[in-house]
Amino acid sequence: METLQEIAKAMVAAGKGILAADESPGTAGKRLASINTESTPDSRRQYREVFLGTEGVENYLSGVIFHDETFRQSLSTGVSFVELLQGLGIIPGIKVDMGLQDLPNFSGEKYTQGITGLKERLAEYYAMGARFAKWRAAFSIGENLPSDTCVETNCVAMAMYALLCQEAGIVPIVEPEILLEGSHSIEESYEVTTRVLKELFATLKRYKVQMDGVILKSSMVISGNKNENRANAATVGEMTIKCLKESVPSEVPGVVFLSGGQIADEATENLYEINKAASLSEGGVPWQLTFSYARALQGPSLASWNGHDENIPAARERFLERMKANSAARMGEVA
């Protein structure tokens, strides 16, 4: 399984999804602070081990996205996280963007940095075992937002990233996140998500990125979290599928959805409705539709663990429950 196409297909295998364990040390620190645990390299390593040491993860995970810190760490047994995944048949991945920066002259908008030195970093990560990578851009919905300049700037960066990944033998995940924060309607979410995805794939094609060797990590088409009349899950499913059919080339092997701040049950229900809508859509859809969650998989388990070793078995049980539920939803079934 070494061609881009083979790796991409394996990343969206039936019944499986991708764990986004790529929080930066700062973000992981916030997670640990929520359970009154000091954030250190070792406590962050243990946080990862609680989840990745769960027996049976290979039944539900096709891949795991790491942050650079975790990619270089090992379990308490001395086995590296990368070696653990390889032994389980789970594909190791790496977040390679260097975070968001304010876009000058465009208030409230961000661009993603990280192209400088990326070619060399990708070569190192490939040698260490990475076979896919992730790059995130973020777009706010608001009055005159996102601007065409913000969309274009981020899509060009993602295309250059994707090109360098494929040259290195690494499958790129492109993640143009439409932020949940706001009072926007689901119709506004649909308009912005469609516009961004169309621009992204047009740019990827201009850069001659192989469409059958790239994975889209997409937001769901969903109402803003401050909207007082949020659309229900069935509508989320229908409008998400409508958006994808209008925007995403059929050659792309799969779409993995981010939870983007949704609570765990909400993300699972919406994933189920998306796959249900896909099955009812005229002609079906050409892509696999699955999950790439962070908090929506780990959040309930984090609360169970609470930083105490004696709680690890209970935390892992909750983690398995979340994975089983999302595996079923990804297949259009209820766990």
Give a brief rundown of this model.
Helix content is 46%, strand content 16%.
Description of the structure:
There is one protein chain. This protein has 335 residues and is α/β, with parallel strands linked by helices. The chain has a single domain, classed as TIM Barrel (Alpha-Beta Barrel), CATH 3.20.20.70. 46% of the residues lie in helices and 16% in strands. The protein has helices at 4-11, 25-33, 41-52, 68-71, 81-88, 118-128, 148-167, 186-206, 233-247, 264-280, 295-305, 312-330; strands at 17-21, 61-66, 91-95, 100-102, 110-112, 132-139, 171-178, 215-218, 254-257, 288-293. An eight-stranded parallel barrel has the order 1-2-3-6-7-8-9-10, surrounded by seven helices. α7 links the parallel β6 and β7. α7 crosses α8 (186-206). The protein starts with a helix and ends in a 5-residue tail after the last helix. The model has no long low-confidence stretch (mean pLDDT 96).
